[in-house]
Amino acid sequence: MTLRNAIDQRFFVDPIRCIGCKSCMQACSECATHRGKPMIHLEFVERGFSTQTVPMVCMHCENPTCAKVCPADAIKRTEDQIVQSSLKERCIGCKNCVLACPFGVPRYYPEIDQMLKCDMCYDRTSVGLKPMCATVCPSEALFYGTLEEFESRRKGRPVNSFQFGEQEITTRVFLVLPEEEVSLRMDVIAHMDARFDSDAFDHIDPFGHLEPLPMQGGGV
Amino acid sequence: MSDLPLSRQELLEQFGPTLRYRPPGGFDQQDDYEKLVPTHCCFCGQQCGIHLKVKDNAVVGFEPRTDFPFNKGKLCPKGVKRYLQGSHPDRLLHPMKRTEKGFVRISWDQALEETVSKIREIQDRYGRDSFAMLSGVSLNNEKSYLVGKFARLALQTANLDYNGRLCMVSAGAANKKAYGIDRASSSWEDIAKAKVIFVIGTNIAECFPITTDYIWRARDNGAKLIYADPRMVPMARTADLYLPLRPGSDSALLMAMLHVIIRDGLTDQKFISEHTVDFEKAAAEVKDATPEWAAKITGVPAEQIEKAARWYGEAETGMILHARGLEHQVNGVKNVLCCANLALATGKIGREGCGHSTITGQGNGQGGREHGHKCDQLPGARDIENPEHRAYIAKVWGCDESEIPRKGLSAQEIMNEIHAGNIKGLLSICFNPLVSLPDANFTREALGKLEHYTVIDFFLSETAQHADIVLPGSLHEEDEGTNTSCEGRVIKINQAIDPPGEAWQDWRILLDIAERLGRGKYFRYQNAQEIFNELRLASRGGTADYSGITWERVERENGVFWPCPQVSEKGKETLDASELDSLHPGIPRLFEGGQFYHMDKKARFTPTQWSESAEVVDSEYPVWLTTGRVISQYLSGTQTRRIGPLVDQYPHPRIEMHTRMARQLGIAEKEWVTLETRRGKITLRSMVVNTIRPDTVFVPYHWAGKQSINMLTQRALDPTSKIPEFKVSACKVRKATEDEIREAVEAESWTSHIERLPERYGLDDRRSELTR
């Protein structure tokens, strides 16, 4: 694959599709240069209230903040627009990158006194393969392909421009937003019959001692 | 024999589970692997394609296999890390005998001879059926077929059953009744083409994650997703319509949906009249099953039930998917029949974008039950009580028909009879009933009553720890053969490495025992392919007809769907692979043109009446208990509880409960909670969430000992499928006492043994472990 083709390949993160399975993390740790260490992570948005999870990969910014704040010049961006993990020889473990990244991606590992983060499986993508995480992702919450390919077969609005206060950031990785506003009711009670705590279960009344359920029973 | 031969500490140190994090030789070995072996994942019925990296006769890593059409490289975490079970420190490497000093190494000759003499002794004293066999559907088709023949002709016992009994048998029984055949109606490609997808009783994201891609492909094309489950599982979170039905109320929901479909004229009358029978009877039974009636039973608002029925009924195409949530019940068969009634009433079966499928949980759950290690079936899904079927198989086997035992007991019934003292001996292969059967304390008592128990396995499972003789068998990657996926696609498992140490391939062990029992004349195979070729012959003319399938075809075509009868170019029947070049294509989508597999080619509606579960909540046990899986573990955890990265994902079972229940009981997140049923109690940490019904708690079942939720589940069986009622029990919940917490903390320490901490991240020190 030529460099041009490699650049045409885009990376898409679609949190709506994420099923929290951690295939991406497990596969990331198997990438040839990662040696058992996952360089991406998965966030539970707020498990108590939702099963929503988000895989966190490096967004590979055009003008990466992590590299800008690195006093040791340990973070390099390659010609094909991949922001590499820190160079072991240079990283001084200061965590500036961890604090500065607006997406919260870099992780500092005290055991090796080094920052590690997603390098988009550079050993694979640089030779025309897909990153491990996007290859295995069961639901295609992580997708690797061209923008045209994505738009021809997928719903959702891919964006790669973000505003953080005064800072505008363009990324190589696209975040997929819903095409329309999504209203998700994440408490099961909101989907249950309003009679749940009275006549429906009055012969058992396991929760008679609970406060009354909200009187709603409408559709989604 | 109920006491363990060693202390738990000694068993843990000798046999694990030991957590393994790195491939043999470390990650550097992955760089210069010698070969990539195309095969499949062993950890569920989706059978994803995968490449295994092999070096020095060891599996050292994996590579996605993007050429396999089902998963195109996609894998769940179990698939990614499955390679770590090879060269595992817990692997059984030589035969062992139980002594007062624990398990001691013995020779194969001694192990086999002692097994055979015990079989003879017990059968001479108590009759042939007093020696039972339990099998597993981790076994490929060849081994499943062989086990069926082995139990009937070598052991000469009727009492053979398999752990698929704890999986899909309710769906299988219902499918046979409704459609005349026990298989998913369509390939998964039809999911992607459906306009509405109705999922009930399955946590697809965690149990069958590759299926989510098919659903999303349909949704990208505008399909609606209806999801019914007591928990708002990850796919339910995104559904267009979510129905939070309470455990055990499935058929009420489904009956009400049929009621609405009939009431609103959404039936396909042409399809019904031309291709089905008994519609009127089924319609009569749902006449009073209004959404309002079902709402009271299910807790799902009536208008939501109406909407689900209309969406499904009005859509041009539609798919119904379910799994154990619907099937693991005493009403499991009825529940599946209700789904079939919906599919048939709307004519949404046998055409593109339509279908009704169960999702297979176990590796070879589909193929495993087709070829004869199910207590009531002979190869080809033949009926063991049918004289013609018996005669055909007797001819293939070269025995007298009378030599084939009749229908035997199902898995739980076998355990019941062991407990009652009527079955005295047991041979098991790849089945861990102490973790996977309900009412585990009962199972433990039963094992203690056996006069002899020989186990064939590759790790010493919790059940195998009670064995007298342990025979080390083969892992998935140490043998070759075929499996049948959830779609009905027969696929090829390729051997990647040889069995280590003195371990043998399972089929070789069975052949040796048969020989020593004096029944070797029925088991003259040189290799697994010869077994498959006999399976083809034995299945010919059965509903599960594999006779047109050869290993070569399976490899060449990336799988072949059954039924696939043998048809040669010259029109004559043949089993010769060389003559199969004008091949029967196999059948990805069943029932096209409304042709079903009953004699009259018509499908059957089944009138169903609402009935409650075997156990319902009351004032003493007011909470519904339901059980299930987490994505990082597989079945009884014999394999996956030894793979470190998978254990780390979900180290211990937790009691999932709604915020409201937790608040009322004064329970905080991660606090110790005691759960009690009429069978026992368990103390685990809580998981407090809003994504489960407030009258229900959920606990995953993959763990053993005092972390086993199957200590609490009940042995009630579906009358037809004999599947236990795993998914519905009545329980009570409270904060744990100090003593219970102490015991639970101790139990956690027994769940795994981390052998080499620094290897976890390839680091030189242990700081990362200690600071986590």
From TrEMBL, chain A:
<dbReference type="GO" id="GO:0046872">
    <property type="term" value="F:metal ion binding"/>
</dbReference>
<keyword id="KW-0408">Iron</keyword>
<dbReference type="GO" id="GO:0051539">
    <property type="term" value="F:4 iron, 4 sulfur cluster binding"/>
</dbReference>
<keyword id="KW-0004">4Fe-4S</keyword>
<dbReference type="InterPro" id="IPR050954">
    <property type="entry name" value="ET_IronSulfur_Cluster-Binding"/>
</dbReference>
<dbReference type="Pfam" id="PF13247">
    <property type="entry name" value="Fer4_11"/>
</dbReference>
<dbReference type="InterPro" id="IPR017896">
    <property type="entry name" value="4Fe4S_Fe-S-bd"/>
</dbReference>
<keyword id="KW-0411">Iron-sulfur</keyword>
<feature type="domain" description="4Fe-4S ferredoxin-type">
    <location>
        <begin position="81"/>
        <end position="111"/>
    </location>
</feature>
<keyword id="KW-0479">Metal-binding</keyword>
<protein>
    <recommendedName>
        <fullName>4Fe-4S ferredoxin-type domain-containing protein</fullName>
    </recommendedName>
</protein>
<dbReference type="InterPro" id="IPR017900">
    <property type="entry name" value="4Fe4S_Fe_S_CS"/>
</dbReference>
<feature type="domain" description="4Fe-4S ferredoxin-type">
    <location>
        <begin position="49"/>
        <end position="80"/>
    </location>
</feature>
<feature type="domain" description="4Fe-4S ferredoxin-type">
    <location>
        <begin position="9"/>
        <end position="38"/>
    </location>
</feature>
Automatic annotation (TrEMBL), chain B:
<feature type="domain" description="4Fe-4S Mo/W bis-MGD-type">
    <location>
        <begin position="34"/>
        <end position="90"/>
    </location>
</feature>
<keyword id="KW-0408">Iron</keyword>
<protein>
    <submittedName>
        <fullName>Assimilatory nitrate reductase catalytic subunit</fullName>
    </submittedName>
</protein>
<keyword id="KW-0411">Iron-sulfur</keyword>
<dbReference type="InterPro" id="IPR006657">
    <property type="entry name" value="MoPterin_dinucl-bd_dom"/>
</dbReference>
<keyword id="KW-0004">4Fe-4S</keyword>
<dbReference type="InterPro" id="IPR050123">
    <property type="entry name" value="Prok_molybdopt-oxidoreductase"/>
</dbReference>
<dbReference type="GO" id="GO:0022904">
    <property type="term" value="P:respiratory electron transport chain"/>
</dbReference>
<feature type="region of interest" description="Disordered">
    <location>
        <begin position="361"/>
        <end position="381"/>
    </location>
</feature>
<dbReference type="GO" id="GO:0051539">
    <property type="term" value="F:4 iron, 4 sulfur cluster binding"/>
</dbReference>
<dbReference type="InterPro" id="IPR006656">
    <property type="entry name" value="Mopterin_OxRdtase"/>
</dbReference>
<dbReference type="GO" id="GO:0046872">
    <property type="term" value="F:metal ion binding"/>
</dbReference>
<keyword id="KW-0479">Metal-binding</keyword>
<dbReference type="Pfam" id="PF00384">
    <property type="entry name" value="Molybdopterin"/>
</dbReference>
<dbReference type="GO" id="GO:0003954">
    <property type="term" value="F:NADH dehydrogenase activity"/>
</dbReference>
<dbReference type="Pfam" id="PF04879">
    <property type="entry name" value="Molybdop_Fe4S4"/>
</dbReference>
<dbReference type="Pfam" id="PF01568">
    <property type="entry name" value="Molydop_binding"/>
</dbReference>
<feature type="compositionally biased region" description="Basic and acidic residues">
    <location>
        <begin position="368"/>
        <end position="381"/>
    </location>
</feature>
<dbReference type="InterPro" id="IPR006963">
    <property type="entry name" value="Mopterin_OxRdtase_4Fe-4S_dom"/>
</dbReference>
<dbReference type="InterPro" id="IPR009010">
    <property type="entry name" value="Asp_de-COase-like_dom_sf"/>
</dbReference>
<dbReference type="GO" id="GO:0043546">
    <property type="term" value="F:molybdopterin cofactor binding"/>
</dbReference>
<dbReference type="GO" id="GO:0016020">
    <property type="term" value="C:membrane"/>
</dbReference>
